[in-house]
Structures are given as C-alpha cells and as structure tokens.
Write a structure and sequence with these properties.
The structure is a single chain. With 307 residues, this protein is an alpha/beta fold. Helices cover 39% and strands 15% of the residues. It has a single domain, classed as Rossmann fold (3-Layer(aba) Sandwich), CATH 3.40.50. The chain is globular. The structure holds nicotinamide-adenine-dinucleotide. The site of nicotinamide-adenine-dinucleotide has 24 residues, from helix 1, helix 5 and strand 7.
C-alpha cells in the first residue's frame, strides 16, 4: 500500500481527496493546520474512530520549511516514509486575506511542499493549481472559447499569480530532477453536494457566473482527478484543467457566448451545455471522466426529499 500525504486534507477538496484515496486502498495522512470541520459530528454520528483516523491531521504550518519537511518524513509512531504527496493546502480563493498575504502563504507553502518532497526523494507530486490562471474573472475576454491549457496564462489577482508561480516552480523543480513528476490540477470552483442548492439561482441569473465561464467541479470528481494524476505514469511538470462535464446553467453555450463574449471565437461542442473550461487534455492523458453533475444531483435530492 502506498502512503500519501494530503496537505489541506481538512478542507473542502481535501476531505473528498482523503476519502477517495482511502477507498482505493491508499494509506493516507492528512497534514493541515486545523481539524476537519465535520470530524466531531461524524464521530458523534457513529463513524468509527478507525475509519476517521486518516482525517485526523498531523498539525503543521506549511509556511515553515522545517515543519513541512518533518511532516513529509516521519511522525513518531504514526508513520515513517511517504511515497507520494498531494498538496492542496492554501488560502483557497482571492479576496479572503490581503493580497500580499495570499501571495506569501500560497507561494511559500507550495515551495516548501515541493522542496521537502525533493529533499526526501518523493517523486510523485500532485497539487492544486486553479482555473484562475486562465484569466478569471474574464473582464478581458479569453482569446477563444472553450479555454484550454495551450492558452497563455493571464493571472488577474495575487491569488492567481501565486498559482502561476507554483506552476513555474513545478517546471523548474522537474528540470532539476527529471525523474520527478509534479502535476498541477487547475480546478474549477469546488462544489460539495449541498452547494447544488444554489444552482437554480445561477441558472436564473447566468451573468453571476460569467467570471469562470459557468464552470464548476464536484469535490468527488476533483478527488478522482487527483487519484488519476497520482497513478499516471508521467514524469515532468504538467497542468490539467479539471472541471465537470457541463456548465452550471441550462442556457446553451452559443447564447451565453453571443451575449457575454461577443466577437470571441467559439468552437461548439457536441453538447450545448458542454464545459467551456476544456477537459479534453485530462480526459486524454489521465482518463478523467466526471461522474457527478448538478442536474442529476438536484434531481436525486428532490426525489429523496419527496419520498
Ligand atoms: N475551492 C475552490 O473553488 C478552488 C478552486 C480552484 C482551486 N482550489 C485550490 O484547491 C485547494 C483546496 O481548496 P479547498 O476549497 O479545499 O480549500 P479549503 O480552505 O477548504 O482547504 C484548504 C486547507 O488548507 C489548510 N491550510 C491553509 N494554509 C495552511 C498552512 N500554512 N499550513 C497547513 N495547512 C494550511 C487549511 O487549514 C484548509 O484546511 C487549494 O489549493 C485551493 O487554492 C480551490
């Protein structure tokens, strides 16, 4: 069994990632500053201590290199040696802390995670970049729609700039050590099942989701993408856009693009609501295929509540 450290395993995407990896037989260690918000309630609801064990964090502040190095090496009797790293810990969006603070925390923690992995010979690294490097909130329209990984990055915030610095660090670390693999997943906006309650409003007011081309990622599909990236037999630095298969609205893409991005070259997909954050590269190179979707999820939950 491979041992994987998941930094930020107490967070939204991190909790889904820990579950996904445990369910696929990995020995998982969560490294985070805080406990998962739902840990006590899950315990109170009868989940066994043993099944919750991987969620109990080794508490470390990854802005500190010593703490990062130690947490990736060995923690007393809990574990000794780590085979792979999933680095998700970060301030997760622009606007939550002052700009220089998000830049400092997100670049420093990413540097420390990559450098500690390299020092310890951990050569399988997957980390959370972000859709924001693509030019969100698209006040300047993208060069074409759908957007893909071939387009030049256009960070428009300190948060996005820090993610792009992470992508560049990954390239340079892999140049230093060609046997290293560092896969950056440019996640769209992460959603848990309860978040789908907001989707009918998005559908009624599509202008409110123009900022990320109406994209989203179900946390469980994001977690599957992480596992597939860990298992991919690649070396070097790669980035992949990770979104769900369809947009957050029912209005056809052709109408959205004509109204909100007039004049931008648009390539129509097979489905009128196909994601405008292209996942073709992840499909082709990782075998990624999203399994969840907001319409099915809302249909299922309204079915459940009417039973
Ligand atoms: N949420 C989104 O919509 C979204 C979209 C694209 C990318 N991402 C990226 O995905 C990753 C996970 O996002 P999330 O939504 O789960 O965020 P989250 O805030 O729910 O989880 C992030 C976790 O990182 C931990 N953390 C932050 N700084 C730390 C530090 N210095 N040391 C140790 N732990 C630290 C936090 O305690 C938290 O548990 C982040 O890198 C984020 O930038 C998120």
């Amino acid at each position: 069994m491979s041992r994987v450290v998941v930094t930020g395993g107490s967070g939204k995407l991190g909790r889904a990632c820990v579950s996904e990896l445990v369910n696929h037989g990995y020995d998982v260690v969560n490294v985070d500053r805080v406990f998962p918000a739902d840990l006590l309630s899950r315990f109170a609801n009868g989940e066994s201590e043993e099944s919750l064990e991987p969620f109990f964090p080794v508490r470390a502040d990854l802005e500190d290199f010593g703490e990062t190095l130690e947490a990736l090496a060995q923690v007393d009797q809990r574990y000794n040696g780590v085979d792979a790293l999933v680095h998700l810990a970060a301030i997760p969006a622009p606007g939550l802390v002052p700009n220089h603070v998000v830049f400092r925390i997100n670049t420093m923690t990413t540097y420390n995670a990559f450098a500690a992995a390299r020092r310890l010979g951990i050569r399988n690294v997957v980390w959370a970049s972000s859709e924001t490097v693509l030019g969100l909130p698209f006040d300047t329209p993208p060069p074409a729609i759908p957007v893909d990984e071939d387009m030049a990055p256009k960070p428009e915030s300190a948060y996005a700039l820090a993610k792009l610095m992470g992508e560049e660090m990954a390239r340079q670390f892999c140049r230093w050590d060609p046997a290293l693999k560092i896969i950056g997943l440019r996640f769209s906006n992460v959603m848990e099942p309860q978040d789908y309650r907001a989707f009918p409003r998005f559908d009624a007011e599509p202008e409110t989701r123009k900022w990320n081309l109406w994209g989203y990622i179900d946390a469980r599909d994001g977690a599957t993408a992480i596992r597939l990236a860990l298992e991919a037999p690649l070396t070097g630095a790669e980035v992949f856009i990770i979104a769900n298969a369809e947009t957050v609205v029912t209005r056809p893409n052709r109408e959205l693009v004509a109204k909100f991005f007039p004049g931008v070259p648009y390539r129509e997909g097979a489905d009128p609501n196909e994601t405008l954050l292209s996942i073709a590269k992840a499909r082709q190179m990782l075998g990624y295929e999203p399994m969840h979707g907001w319409r099915r999820e809302l249909g299922e939950s309204s079915e459940r509540s009417s039973r």
